[in-house]
Amino acid sequence: MAPAADRDGYWGPTTSTLDWCEENYSVTWYIAEFWNTVSNLIMIIPPMFGAIQSVRDGLEKRYIASYLALTVVGMGSWCFHMTLKYEMQLLDELPMIYSCCIFVYCMFECFKIKNSVNYHLLFTLVLFSLIVTTVYLKVKEPIFHQVMYGMLVFTLVLRSIYIVTWVYPWLRGLGYTSLGIFLLGFLFWNIDNIFCDSLRNFRKKVPPIIGITTQFHAWWHILTGLGSYLHILFSLYTRTLYLRYRPKVKVSPLLRSCVCVGDMVLGV
Fold it and tell me: Which residues bind Ca(2+) (predicted)?
């Protein structure tokens, strides 16, 4: 986490329980952690296009919800890192739990009839979200949130490995790419936390353009945002295969990955 000495800025004193390694208000007086803020664009813009395209193609609502949930996480994270206020921190961290619950639901419902609803799983995930929210609001302990989030991610990893190992082995490329990118982001997140003092000292000695590349929490946003987006694509691909749509993954001229059935785009 960040050392105590930081500049004051537009949003006033920090009230969040976390303050990351990026120097506060070092780029602009209006944004506490500039690079940690703008790096969230990858979690906001691409999923918005995905949600819009999913609506156009009449996909199941769970996948529209997945894209929108990732967008909400990006927006919440933007507000948190821009202000370093506790209320904005909750807008970042709680949607991480909720979005992962949606991802879990999608992954465990890949092999069901179209438009089916698993009320037992839905109830379990909603109950889990409510318990995590209630406890976290009470204890305000970031480690608790991180452990709960890690449990959900681990569940997704196990389910993904099961699918690419026993059901659709030809999806290993997409599945493992998503996982690898996400884990690389997690590595950068740990480096940023553990070596914060060293990173700050290094940034003081090098040109700003080089220092930017060591904003590893911003890299965490970029890589986990991309990894999460690819995970939704992987989940959608698995679903369309089960429904015998014969999907294909391609990259559009705007460099947006999509799942396609024939000439119809199913996910951007």
Answer: 19-20, 22, 24, 33
Q: Is residue 206 part of a domain?
A: yes
pLDDT tens profile 73-91? 999 999 999 999 999 999 9
* Residues annotated in a binding site for Ca(2+): 19-20, 22, 24, 33
pTM of the prediction? 0.90
Residue with token string 């000439």: 263
Residue 11 lies in a domain: no
Q: How many domains does the chain have?
A: 1
Euclidean distance between CA atoms 245 and 254, whole angstroms = 24
User: Cβ(220)–Cβ(28) under 8 Å?
Assistant: no
Which of helix, strand or coil describes residue 265? strand
Write out the binding residues for Zn(2+). Answer: 81, 217, 221
pLDDT number for residue 262? 39
Contact 8, 77 (CB under 8 A): no
- How many C-beta atoms lie closer than 10 Å to residue 165's C-beta? 11
**Which residue ranges make up the annotated binding site?**
19-20, 22, 24, 33, 81, 217, 221
Distance of CA 1 to the CA centre of its chain: 20
Residue 178 one-letter amino acid: S
Q: Residue 231, SS3?
A: helix
> Any idea what the CATH number is for the domain that residue 100 is in?
1.20.1070
Q: Which domain holds residue 185?
A: 34-243
Q: Rounded distance, CA 112 to CA 110, Å?
A: 6
Residue 244's pLDDT is 86
Question: 199 lies in a domain?
Answer: yes
